[in-house]
Design a protein that fits this description.
By secondary structure, the protein is an alpha/beta fold. It is about 45% helix and about 10% strand. It has a six-stranded parallel β-sheet, sandwiched between helices. Strand 2, helix 6 and strand 3 form a beta-alpha-beta unit. The N and C termini lie close together (about 10 Å).
Amino acid sequence: MMNYEYLLFDADDTLFDFPKASSRAFESMCRAHEIPYTPEIYRLYHEINLELWAAFDRGEAAKEFVTLERYVRFLKALGLERDPAECNRDYLAALGQGVYPLPHAEAVCRELKQRGHHMYIITNAVASVQRSRLRGSVFAELFEAAFISEEAGAAKPSKAYFDYVRRQLPGLTDENVLVIGDSLTTDIQGANNAGLPCCWVNPAKKPRQEGLRVDYEIAGLRELLDIV
């Protein structure tokens, strides 16, 4: 008998190699807009991007603001005259084509599917990007649906987001579901807020946060097979 019938997977950095997809999409955008591409320039963009997404996770900024503002600040820091909206558009288009599963992700998900688990994706990513990536990935046939924050009207880690997921999955209970993700601030905090069991994917062996419940901690997805 399986421990958890429903599995809610985060996408980026849990199933997908997001840093690889992001750096390649950024390089493509730079070529299209004649922006110099170096590791230092990408690091500048990445730092700006992380700062803005952290504000989003705290509920301080809307996703639409984050995705445009990162290029406003990036171009200003470089002193370049480019259209930030066009840069963002071309980056997102390239990102939507960047499908790089993390090691063992496909094999683990196929095994879980064969065992009879119902698997879903829970993500705060830009809907158009994530839908494109999922359609072009090996996961399209393995996951029954993807619940994306901008379509849900709420984002992880809010309880409202998980309430939305519950409404879509009437068979889900507090006992038969496991939330699986790499982020303490969105995935694990979200599971805590919703009162759901959670599994933290922590390959870098980062320290836990005091006061945050982590039911399971794994270094790689293959360990999940012994839990669920």
